[in-house]
TrEMBL record, chain A:
This is Dynamin family protein. InterPro entries: Dynamin_N, P-loop_NTPase. It holds the Pfam family Dynamin_N. It comes from the Bacteria. It comes from Actinomycetospora aurantiaca.
From TrEMBL, chain B:
Residues 508-528 are annotated as: Disordered. It comes from Actinomycetospora aurantiaca. The chain crosses the membrane at residues 396-417. This is Dynamin family protein. Keywords: Membrane, Transmembrane, Transmembrane helix. The keyword Transmembrane helix applies. It comes from the Bacteria.
């Protein structure tokens, strides 16, 4: 576990004995969560492809998927020794429930247990999937659903340190407020994807849509990566069988198939060589884009096997880009993100306490506020004064810049990338270690000048962060 | 047909009833928008749903044929179904609301990828309050296999949010397929069928063409009905209580807000007027010190009288400035509470004179005394208020200044004479000047402060009176809200009547002679 998360946990634990009991327990819980396995919340509007992407990421068809609103409950997917499903009720108690056929989470959980669905807080799914090593995945119901009250669904409030935001092509900035957890707190620790890139046209079309989304939402969510969730799910879960491949091979030889692929129902009803039931199954597994890809591959290489097709589908799905982003931007920054989330939780605790004190004072005027609030506020201030915020500011600026939402001069963008990139600085910089301190001092002075003189505010903020970054390098070298 | 015979009269009567209720509540009545020319259908929907692509497909234009246009007419011989109507692509309101404008009917464009979200349903409910006839197009069936599930969910959601649209027609369409089929002749027939544009065109034709008057009537009635509903259900006690609470909060807030504004205004006036006084006295001191340095003996003799005259001018100017300031302040504070006529009537009652100045009795001759005074029996502090009292507050024209006299006390003259006897020392004159001015300034400051205190008291009272008046008006409104009034009953009756009329209009619209029942698109179960 990283240094800043440890630091946060220690600060919380140190304060716990000197404050009132409920707050002390809350602080202990915050400390425990800061050093626990980090979680990523998968969030986005209804039917944007969240659960499909979760299945692809864990490599199992476990979350229910389909058209319409499928996910009605928040589900936490954790690494465990056996596959197992527990239903966590609102009062905190757990009820075990067998997984449905094929290892899926069953529908209508409440009915099966004989409890009111409104009493279910979330589902806890243990899986033996390696993908969950060191990163818990939290799948949430779609935001903006007319079926639920506004705001994040229950069980998903601040449930994670980072967020995977799955967007439809029409996403708008005002929707972000309804997303769950970390997605509302700035672009660091947020990986945004266009979840069903195959529904917006060809691959270049999807890239164009993703770019527009990046610029529109980048300020809050960072760059948007297009991904075809269904292809990733089919390829990683091994759903494609030899029989399916045989049907595809038959279809590849049929000249009418390309025209029929314009519309899914046309594909099922058109007079083609494979039988309609198989074609329906192919549509469910691959949809039109996947079928077209598989057909193209089979026409080029008639001897290709299931593995080859899956590899091609996986490559076309763009899942590897998402996994890579998760590795660098979420797993690689787990320490920063855990510390920031813990800080946010302490601040929320302080806010709640402040509200309680205020309510108390309104009831009984003249009563002095207890020392708890002062101690909590001090803790928040101490946590916020730590230099990790410089790292966060640099990361956020770099993310905004990459999304296209924040235009920066080339020089500033270059310096920003230099400071954000991992690894030892001298090697990246190409400056002899002996001259690094002087270089850093000069750069710090130069960027301070840029930040203070007439630069537009958004750029001045970035220049100031870069200035502080160099000043820190200089400070570390000169002691 | 016979069923629809009495319908126009019924609709007119229902609309009159609603308009009477609106007039009772002081709302203007929009009446029926007298549409001219062809009826129009507005395409509305959330951003990015593809309204323009659908419009292009409906009119058989190229895929980007609807770009940058707000009103589209069908190219006549090519699209006979839509020849008699225009398509509107109204801009959305800044908050995302769908503006139907003068459209005769609406086509709501929903996405096939996901059920309607909460914002869309809210905007739909708003738009359906101004336009009676609504049809739905589910766009993107070629990309989303599960559109049937989404369609079912959408129907259910619409029925929950806008009950009367629960049975509205839905048309799954694919502008993409329509664009692909464009110009392919008979070869693209299958694609064209799958695109589902033709049933929607047919439906719009039956619904809208040659029906402008009827639709306009229905829309006018619908708008009036929405306006009456927005007045609030007059007989719902919960709603009544909520409105009463809001009015009471407005009343408390009114007082607090005006008092805060007035207090800060008078504090600013205090600072400004004292600053003005200090500046003028300092200028006077510099001037006279300069004179003493250059003056001969005879001129020094005149020092006392000159200083008295100058001080009088300063006092006049400062008092006039304060008067102006207070007037502006009163006008600014009361202007939005009172009508201009009432404002002109506002007077601060003339204070009763009381002896305030020290008697002109004998004083120790060695004590400096600058006495600011006037002869009318009013103290200077009262005089300071006179400009305010003497003229109506509202027309702030020509500040009628009451002459203010500042006299140097008798003691001062004697002291000055004694000084002169002692060799008319310049140094002594300078000392006297400094002391006299200091004293005069303190005195004037006291006078101004007292004037401000009195003004604050009097104007606060006036303000309270005005606020009480406003509060009484709010109370009147509150009383008007009491349940069971005749107007509430009349409103309910008018609403019921309008609803019946709209139901009959809708029925007439759907069974108009010569109109085929709304065609079931594709393999859907009946959509009517």
């Amino acid at each position: 576990m990283g240094r800043w998360a440890q630091d946060t946990a220690q600060a919380c634990r140190a304060l716990a004995p000197s404050v009132g009991l409920p707050i002390a327990d809350a602080l202990d819980a915050i400390a425990a969560r800061a050093v626990a396995t980090p979680a990523i919340v998968v969030t986005g509007p209804v039917s944007s492809g969240k659960s499909t992407l979760v299945n692809a990421l864990v490599g199992r068809r476990v979350a229910p998927t389909g058209a319409g609103e499928c996910t009605r409950l928040t589900a936490r997917y954790v690494r465990g020794p056996v596959d197992r499903l527990d239903v966590v009720l609102a009062d905190g108690s757990r009820r075990p429930l067998p997984l449905a056929e094929g290892g899926r989470v069953p529908a209508a959980v409440g009915d099966r247990l004989g409890v009111d669905p409104a009493d279910v807080d979330h589902l806890l799914v243990s899986l033996t999937s390696d993908a969950l090593d060191g990163l818990t995945v939290v799948d949430t119901p779609g935001a903006g659903s007319a079926r639920r009250p506004r705001g994040p669904a229950r069980g998903s409030t601040d449930a994670a340190e980072s967020a995977l935001v799955v967007l439809p092509p029409t996403a708008r900035p005002d929707e972000i407020a309804g997303f769950a957890g970390a997605a509302r707190h700035g672009p660091a620790g947020v990986v945004a994807v266009l979840g069903r890139a195959d529904t917006v046209g060809s691959e270049p079309d999807a890239a164009g849509v993703a770019e527009v989304l990046s610029r529109r939402l980048g300020d809050r969510l960072g760059p948007v990566t297009p991904v075809v969730g269904l292809l990733a799910e089919t390829a990683t879960t091994g759903a494609l069988r030899t029989a399916d491949l045989a049907a595809l091979r038959v279809l590849a030889a049929d000249p009418g198939v390309d025209g029929a692929l314009l519309d899914p129902e046309l594909f099922v009803t058109a007079p083609l060589s494979a039988d309609p039931a198989t074609r329906t199954r192919l549509l469910e597994l691959l949809d039109r884009r996947g079928i077209a890809l598989a057909l193209a591959l089979l026409r080029e290489r008639p001897d290709a096997g299931v593995g080859d097709v899956c590899a091609a589908l996986l490559a076309a799905s763009g899942l590897d880009r998402v996994v890579e982003r998760l590795r660098v931007e979420v797993r690689g920054r787990a320490d920063l993100l855990a510390a920031r989330a813990a800080e946010r939780r302490v601040a929320a605790l302080a806010d709640a306490e402040r509200a309680a004190v205020r309510a108390e004072r309104r009831r009984a005027p003249g009563r002095e506020a207890g020392p708890d609030l002062t101690r909590l506020t001090d803790l928040v201030e101490d946590l916020r004064a730590r230099p990790l915020h410089l790292d966060l500011a640099l990361v956020e600026a770099a993310t905004r810049h990459r999304s296209g939402a924040l235009a920066l001069p080339d020089e500033l963008a270059g310096e920003l990338d230099l400071l954000v990139a991992p690894g030892p600085l001298p090697a990246r910089l190409g400056v002899p270690p002996t001259e690094l301190a002087g270089h850093a001092a000069r750069r710090a002075a130069a960027w301070r000048a840029v930040a203070t003189w007439g630069t537009p505010p958004a750029q001045a903020d970035v220049a100031d962060a870069v200035h502080r970054g160099w000043a820190r390098v200089w400070g570390e070298l000169t002691g | 047909m016979s069923d629809a015979a009495g319908l126009p009269d019924e609709v007119t009567a229902a609309r009159r009833g609603l308009e009477r209720v609106l007039a009772e509540h002081g709302h203007p009545t929009a009446g029926v928008a007298a549409g001219t020319g062809k009826p129009s259908v507005a395409l509305v929907g959330a951003p990015g749903r593809g309204r323009r692509a659908l419009a292009a497909a409906l009119l058989d234009l190229p895929a980007d044929g609807a770009r940058d246009r707000a009103r589209l007419a069908a190219p006549d011989p090519d699209v006979p179904w839509l020849a008699e109507l225009d398509l509107l692509l109204p801009a959305r309101a800044p908050d995302g609301a769908w503006l139907a404008g003068t459209a005769s009917a609406l086509v709501v464009v929903a996405g096939a990828g996901a059920p309607l979200d909460r914002d869309e349903l809210e905007h739909l409910a708003d738009a359906a309050g101004t336009v009676d006839t609504v049809t739905f197009a589910l766009v993107g069936t070629e990309a989303h296999r599960g559109w049937r599930t989404v369609l079912d969910a959408d129907r259910e959601l619409v029925a929950e949010h806008v009950a009367r649209l629960g049975r509205a027609a839905w048309f799954p369409v694919s502008p993409v397929l329509a664009a692909a089929a464009r110009g392919t002749g008979t070869a693209g027939e299958e694609l064209r069928r799958r695109a589902g544009i033709a049933p929607l065109q047919r439906h719009l034709h039956h619904l809208v063409a040659r029906r402008r008057r009827m639709l306009d009537e229905a829309n006018g009635l619908r708008r009036a009905l929405t306006a009456v509903r927005a007045l609030g259900p007059a007989h719902d006690p919960d709603d009544l209580r909520a409105r009463r609470a809001a009015l009471e909060a407005a009343r408390a807030g009114l007082r607090r807000e005006h008092h805060v504004r007035w207090r800060s205004g008078i504090a600013a006036a205090r600072v400004a007027v004292l600053d003005d006084l200090g500046r003028r006295v300092r200028a006077l001191a510099a001037h006279h010190r300069d004179r003493i340095e250059r003056a001969g003996r005879s001129e020094l003799d005149r020092l006392g009288a000159d200083l008295a005259r100058d001080l009088e001018q300063v006092a006049d100017a400062v008092v006039a400035g304060l008067g102006d300031r207070l007037r502006a302040l009163v006008v600014g504070t009361l202007a939005d509470l009172l009508s201009p006529d009432d404002l002109a009537e506002v007077r601060i009652p003339v204070p009763t004179p009381r002896p305030e100045l020290p008697d002109d009795g004998p004083r120790p001759t060695d004590r400096m005394l600058v006495v600011a005074g006037a002869s009318s029996g009013l103290g200077l502090s009262r005089l300071a208020l006179l400009p305010l009292l003497a003229v109506p507050v509202a027309p702030v024209v020509g500040a009628a200044l009451v002459p203010v006299s500042v006299g140097l006390g008798l003691g001062a003259a004697g002291w000055l004479a004694r000084v002169r006897r002692r060799a008319a020392d310049r140094a002594h004159a300078r000392a006297w000047l400094a002391e006299a001015l200091g004293q005069a300034r303190t005195d004037l400051e006291r006078v101004l402060s007292e004037a401000l205190i009195v003004a604050e008291r009097e104007i606060t009272l006036a303000l309270d009176r005005a606020l009480d008046e406003r509060a009484r008006r709010l109370d009147g409104e509150l009383n008007a809200l009491s349940p069971g009034t005749g107007s509430g009953v009349r409103a309910a009756a008018a609403v019921a009547r309008a609803e019946t009329a709209l139901d009959r209009l809708a029925a007439a619209r759907d069974d108009f002679p010569g109109t085929a029942p709304a065609t079931a698109p594709r393999d859907l179960p009946s959509t009517t």
